[in-house]
Automatic annotation (TrEMBL):
Residues the record marks as active site: C51 (cysteine sulfenic acid (-soh) intermediate)
Species for this entry: Geofilum rubicundum JCM 15548
Domain of life per record: Bacteria
Pfam families per UniProt: 1-cysPrx_C (PF10417), AhpC-TSA (PF00578)
Function per UniProt: Thiol-specific peroxidase that catalyzes the reduction of hydrogen peroxide and organic hydroperoxides to water and alcohols, respectively. Plays a role in cell protection against oxidative stress by detoxifying peroxides.
Membership in a protein family: Belongs to the peroxiredoxin family. AhpC/Prx1 subfamily.
Name assigned to this protein: Thioredoxin peroxidase
UniProt cross-references to PROSITE patterns, sorted A to Z: THIOREDOXIN_2
UniProt GO cellular component terms: cytosol
Record-level Gene Ontology MF annotations: thioredoxin peroxidase activity
Sorted UniProt keywords: Cytoplasm, Disulfide bond, Oxidoreductase, Peroxidase, Redox-active center
Length: 210
């Protein structure tokens, strides 16, 4: 598993569905550089079980992300047409109608591969033929990207394990607190808590208060 923290987020340009219904041709995270933070998350497949709970949970908290100047973007190895159909399907029928943030189509699996969350890989068989081994879907990877396009946080879950949207918000708050105050965030830090000066005196002071 590659660690992308501290590195530029891998770039791409591909099709996506935005605003819940509009298919665009050349969607890229480059549009956010210098303007917004990005929560870029992978999920395995449209029309499955855990995935809609995560996507709808992000949509329910979208105002909180927007208030922090964060763009939320989802991606799977499904086509843009699968995304579009899922977005038009009512929740009671297993759909995600009402979701407005972009869903990126990674049918070539190159984005999942470049972020190193693809559950399978291409390899040569005994006959020397190239074939795909494993599952052509992404693990539940999530990447918090700052306004300079650098990955500052990543987490990857196996497919059965849904993520915490509240924890994602906490990490956004921690990054922005550090950028604004120059203080680091200790264990279990939440917005409104005190930070920690990255010195021996700072840790002694913090531990003395707690």
């Amino acid at each position: 598993m590659s660690v992308l923290v501290g590195k530029k987020a891998p770039s791409f340009s591909t099709k996506a569905v935005v605003n819940g219904h509009e298919i665009v041709e050349n969607f890229s995270l480059e549009q956010y550089v210098g303007k917004k933070y990005v929560v870029f998350f992978f999920y395995p497949k449209d029309f499955t079980f855990v995935c809609p709970t995560e996507i709808i949970a992000f949509q329910e908290k979208i105002a909180e992300f927007e208030s922090r100047n964060v763009a939320v973007v989802g991606v799977s190895t499904d086509s843009e047409f699968s995304h579009w159909k899922w977005l038009q399907t009512d929740k009671k029928e297993g759909g995600i109608k009402g979701v407005k943030f972009p869903l990126v189509a990674d049918g070539s699996m190159t984005i999942s591969d470049s972020y190193d969350v693809l559950a399978g890989e291409y390899d040569f068989n005994e006959e020397g033929m190239l074939e795909f081994k494993g599952e052509p879907a992404a693990y539940r990877g999530l990447f918090l990207i700052d306004k300079e396009g650098v990955v500052r946080h990543q987490v990857v879950n196996d497919m059965p394990l849904g993520r915490s949207v509240d924890e994602t918000l906490r990490m956004v708050d921690a990054l922005q607190f550090f950028e604004e105050n120059g203080e680091v965030c200790p264990a279990n830090w939440h917005k409104g808590s005190t930070g920690l000066k990255a010195t021996q005196e700072g840790i002694s002071e913090y531990l003395g208060k707690n």
